[in-house]
User: Fold these one by one.
Assistant:
Number 1:
Amino acid sequence: MKSLEKAFDILELFLSDKDEISLQDLASSSKLNKATVSRTTSTLVKRGYLRQKEKRGKYSLGTKFLDFSGIIKSRIKLRDIAMPHLIELSQAIKESVLLAIWDGKTAVFSETIHTDYPLRIVPDEGTRIPLYCTGVGKIFLAHMSDEELERYLNTTILEYQTPNTITDPNLIKIHLMTIKKEEVAFDDEEYFAGVRNVAVAIKDGEGKVPGAVSVLGPSVRLTRARMTEIVPDIKRFTSKISIELGYKG
């Protein structure tokens, strides 16, 4: 942990206006000994977080940060485009509507539009949920490559959350084929008893899935018939988001 703190101490020095900083200046400003700074910068250069034009030369920020910047910008753009449509969708179907993104391992609710019903399901923004037993999670799984899906199924413990949870990898694969074909995923009380949700993928200009729109509600109100009934509305508003992101499919 201390080595990680030292790496951050060094990286944060580049928040100054200096484009390039020498090893000596890094050591002096970070109050770390020169040998420690040398080892740390060497690792940061190898990982792309710093660059060094020539041996023993000065250091500057590496291109790895552009990867993070691109992800952050795309998420901000997704949120700004999606919010008006999420609000309209919630008003049209009178249920809670959520925007979910995939963080590489789980689905994360990043935005929530609440329904006016006193009985409602209101997950906190930032709530992480598993992929295999939730509507938005299954959307992300359905759009993975075969290799990514195999890796996920081989490294994830598929536990029963409720009696409705599907835990057989082969059944999950069959289920995902249907989801990809019909472009909608259902969570029929598979993660929480008494809670159902419907999800549809958001697609960008490259055909990738940066997020998903989810409608979440108590099963006493969001019945199976009601879930089917609202699918066209969810697809319509989600399509508007995708089109604004450049999707032409």
Number 2:
Amino acid sequence: MEKVKEYFKKDQFAKMSDIELEWVEPGRARAIMTIKPHHMNAAGMVQGGAIFTLADFAFAAASNSHGNVAVGINANISFVKAGRTGRLTADAREISRNPKLATYAVEVRDDAGETVALFHGMVYRKKELIVPA
């Protein structure tokens, strides 16, 4: 799994968004984002795009954890509570996987453990490896 973590260090958008991959294992991953002023919208809440980016990054790590390049082909998110301070954590888990398609669920929670957003995504699994042999 260290190869997967190394691979995702190249994700410049996650880096710019202050998102870190805490851990990854086959079919699962956790990413964290410490809320900073640039994550906030005009209403004083974490901007939905920042939450989506966090969930999408955890989704990407979980879906690529088997070693094949997996690219998102569908994703949706439901925002259920505002994020305001502290840290947000996104836990991704694999729901189903076959040679070409896989689906994932991601729950984003705040420091109190309360659900902020629910994300579901599907990937197309390519034959290409994330780290060539």
Number 3:
Amino acid sequence: MKLAVTATGDRLDSEVDPRFGICRFIVFIDSETMDFKAVANVAGSGGAGIAAGQLVAEHGAEVLLTGDCGPNAYHVLNSAGIKVITGVHGKVKDAVEAFKTGKYRASDHPSVQPHHGQKLS
């Protein structure tokens, strides 16, 4: 299964980034082989959640593991058939292992309000 995990760095031992739309990287991982590719998230401040959601969909992920996900991003991901799992923390590789053991369940709604985690001017 192809997973997407928000991350502070481009490695499996990087920490899960708690902010979906403005995370530094999205790590795409094959949960069976643990082969991965890290992609820099270049979404700007306006519409970041939507752009990051489109990036996850374009890379064919089936599940997203992240700390929080706002309503716009959640809508994009849900519309693409991607399961969203929030409340994830720790190292990317540990989050994947926890997912594989059934620790996490998909969310049926966004975990934060619009623009959560963003500095608004």
